[in-house]
Specification:
globular, 3'-5'-RNA exonuclease activity (chains A, B, C, D, E, F), about 240 residues, 5 helices, tRNA processing (chains A, B, C, D, E, F), alpha+beta, Ribosomal Protein S5, domain 2, homohexamer, four-stranded antiparallel sheet
């Protein structure tokens, strides 16, 4: 295995500095700015007193997510999706992933007939926006759920477990944790992994960009992801324990 | 004239606390977070090396603006325009206003065949988002222009004057400067005023919400706006003088 | 102040010939063709027995307006908005203005749970289409309201005052009333003013196209608008008094 | 065969009063208001100095048509297509028909690389809007072509023949010429016929609304259409001979 | 009249080989692959337990059709309409025709408050896709109706008559039955005819592509269509008699 | 591990019957109907002599894919995306996956400046449409490439390896190969795996639907996928060896 030189002398198995700021804005039920190094995503959770029509009379709630990037969040300005008139395939793919990941740790039957609406808006993008979105949105979600409990709107906590996400990849054959944009652009394989606080896998999405990867390489990447997500969930625990 | 009690003991002729943070993100040529009290708008300026087709062969540049609100920026979550599939009439009206206001103080002939693209994205909305956008975008614009000068892309500064904006209104017949959301929702008249550093009027948009207003009331509101915009331009001067 | 030569020897403070034709088509509740010189707008008012959802259970009615231009109404053919697939920002801005202006003189509580739907369609455009739309739509609105009264659908007249609109502007520093297209294209400042029959201001929208304008120039333009709107309201009075 | 009582004592083989007003607006190259009784359509022809991409390098011109209805043109107000965001299937079907009918009598090779753009906008609809559009647009087209000839832009007249259209139908088994809206709504069969000045058929579109029709009934309807279109073409001749 | 040489030595009055395959897929209530030579259309009928809002409380059902072409169904790949974002005018025109043709032989009052939804999807296109769609969809419709009868959802058969369609045309002045793509592209006149089992005309749509056609030519084409549709309806009879 | 009873007595590690029919339609460069049991997808490859603008002057080709489902392909009829006006998030996600998977085995530098356009249209859906699409599209792609070689348009074969895909899942904790719709709807985890002929991983997408999955379960699923894809690639080999 080669030695890879990473930005800021980061080790292959090292996350970028992670920062979670709760209460970043004042109107949403939960509002968290998450930073994975230079990647900054504003994750917000709103409580909507309605459910989609396909859940009518099922006595349960729903959780769904939307994702967007500010036009100037990237090195080269992106076109605003509201101007273009639709969301790109990439955007839809990411917001579907965020929703699935969070639903996996929420007991929707305990929510009542309401929707937890998650919004992840990328302020600055340096790789890993979808994984940062999941990790940050989980904290915003907990804050929104706490509000429902405090208001007496629900009786018991529907959150079943922690959930967080990171990317891993192969760069020149070397497994790296938490790719930044430059690494992501040049990697052979890029994999996003979502895991729970008890170590269960929720989602793995691995894509060979340049050449195919082997089972051994997959295992090495999953080991890195397991370790990194453990660290992320420890951070979530600390931040949530601190109170808002 | 009645006495009006404003939030935080603000006087009728008093602006909310204004804060300008330059370099808020790292990729745009100019990036400024502006706060008018609880209203927070991220104003960014990008340099695009192209011009709209209606300016082909006219040997000049262009400046245009886009505006958006994050779904959770308001008390009740708004639908995301990228999901709805188009920008609302209000959004288009505001971004057209921002573009016109800034073009009024830029000599487009000195820009070369490039576009200054302004993006104003509302992080939190408590009234006055369009006026804060103009005041903040002017500073972002200056930073982008400075970059062009430093790079030698342009030879002389195309910025002709300062420009800033505020709202004024009549609440229970009393003229107030810089309305917050609660005041804006209950006012009789709402007026947005854009002025230059030399005191010239660029745009006035006054609307009677409840009942018509008189020429005397118009004059009182314009006096307030004149004073408030003077203070805003002083802040722009200080912030720009400080260097980035 | 310079002397300006206007088309057809019009004086600076002189409106173009104004003509209001009621009953221009047969199906709408109110149908008025208004002409400001060569500008011709068909203003129609329909009664819809429904209200928008945000007014449910508020025991009041609504008034809203739509605006469009026929593709051949302008010197160079415009693209049809139904083909393009959406209304432009300019169109939305204008129809929002028309709706606000008319709502300012209608007591929506007296309308019952129905909507007055205004349609302003420009047959020929020579400047001032938005102000002609407001002046003409007021008459169409009165005819529709009269129909509701005659039918016994409402008991008392919800129309509180007259309303009309004109543009004023500065051309070479000279204030002019009721700009035609050529004047509008070359003016320094363009301002649209909406006033009531009792002289109250409903809306002012002034924009410096070339250079900023002063408070003195604003006052001169408002004086012109006040006079011109007075004449327009006299015409509305005569036309409505004549019976249909 | 039954006797049918028609509005205004019209005979089964009688057209409604037809009126053609040339020069109805001032900006289009050809502008004609056509009336078939209470049906009123503004037909305009513009000259665009461009051709669609599928005709590149074929050394010929093009002719295309668009059709629209003003929202208040019908008894019950229709939704504005620019607001709805697309043209209905009916609208597209009609504008394709108008374009085909007119192209059948124009030698596109003589037009040069330009497009004759036809716009048919329905001011008031009482049945037969598509046939009135064709008859009126032919006159507008001739005026636009005359302009090209006068300007020397083309050397010879590309118009090969007259063309006009009418509807015919079966009401209670009785063939009627030129159906109005009430007749069209209650007929068994509705047929639109487009013919040239030399009696050639360009388009027939017959639809059984209630029950199927026989070859004999088809023949009777075609006889009526032949007679009616002959009268319409005589009117076109007179109007065009009169000069503008 | 000239002699025309057709592909595969086909005579002017000869249909291409026609094949109807029932039960082509397993989920739709009726599913028929129809082939007119190399033209292949999958015609499916679904039963939807809802009706459009304009039929509320009218105690009847509805039948509507949609049409689409697979992108590779044509010689040169077509753009996918789902990607383009709307259906073309041609597509809408065709699906409206299919719906009208089938409704002409269905007693909607006997359907109950449900919709027969027809889908015609072109797998391979060699001319005549709209006429093949009608002929094939009729068989799919009968299968869906039979299912409703078997299930006891309806008591009596709402299908009143057979219906089928063919194209006819003039190529070099010679009338031809059932045009393939090459013939359709080079013909002078193209006509689509829809007839019932009892010989009634449901729809005729004849268009002069190159030059006008005469009444005699129309009669010759209708004679051909009459004969061809008779053969098509015989095939429908045989296929339906065979049981599924 | 429990015993699972599968439809048609299928063993947990058994694929459904797979059938590949080349030359299914006649116009596309490659046209393959693939069946995974009752799932039927028409996979077609077209050669477009153009490249997307982001590849201008890079001297390489491109490969992209589109995916669609016929409205009647599923048990309950789906809305047609062309009518709805856009592709769903699921559709976009799938077509992006198909494109990535195929690009992984194609040397785009050998294609010349042209695009291989893949279309996968689902005729009947019983689970696994995206994996069947990849497996079938690879064969269609080979046929299109063979055509380019035969025509001399390219000199050497750009296809680097075989590629095929299958789904695996956990149902009641039991790993199953190639899920049908009923299994997919009730599984705990659903994973799609794309592998090359030399056993390299191209893409894995595993999603916990009900509860999280462990590393051991992941390994068991990957073993099944490895075996199944080996069988699929053998089938591709046989079919391609047979000649068209």
């Amino acid at each position: 295995m080669n030695t890879i030189s990473r930005c800021n002398d980061r080790a292959p198995a090292q996350l970028r500095p992670v920062k979670l700021t709760r209460g970043y804005t004042r109107y949403a039920a939960g509002s968290v700015l998450i930073e994975y190094g230079e990647t900054k995503v504003l994750c917000q959770a709103s409580i909507l007193e309605k459910i989609p029509s396909f859940l009518k009379d099922k006595e349960q709630g729903w959780l769904t997510a939307e994702y967007g990037m500010l036009p100037c969040s990237t090195g080269e300005r992106m076109q605003r999706e509201a101007v273009k008139g639709n969301q790109s395939g990439r955007t839809m793919e990411i917001q579907r992933l965020i929703g699935r990941a969070l639903r996996a740790v929420v007991d929707l039957g305990k929510l009542g007939e309401r929707t937890l609406q998650i919004d992840c808006d990328v302020i600055q993008a340096d790789g890993g926006t979808r994984t940062a979105s999941i990790t940050g949105a989980f904290v915003a979600l907990c804050d929104a759920v706490q509000l429902l409990l405090t208001q007496g709107a629900i009786q018991s906590n529907p959150v079943l477990d922690y959930v967080a996400a990171t990317s891993v990849g192969l760069v020149n054959g070397c497994p790296l944790l938490d790719l930044d944009y430059a690494e992501d652009s040049s990697c052979d394989t890029d994999m996003n992994v979502v895991m729970t606080g008890t170590g269960g896998l929720i989602e793995i999405q691995g894509t060979a960009e340049g050449q195919a990867f082997s089972r051994q390489q997959l295992d090495a990447m999953l080991d890195l992801a397991h370790q990194g997500i453990g660290e992320l969930i420890n951070l979530q625990r600390q931040v949530l324990a601190a109170g808002q």
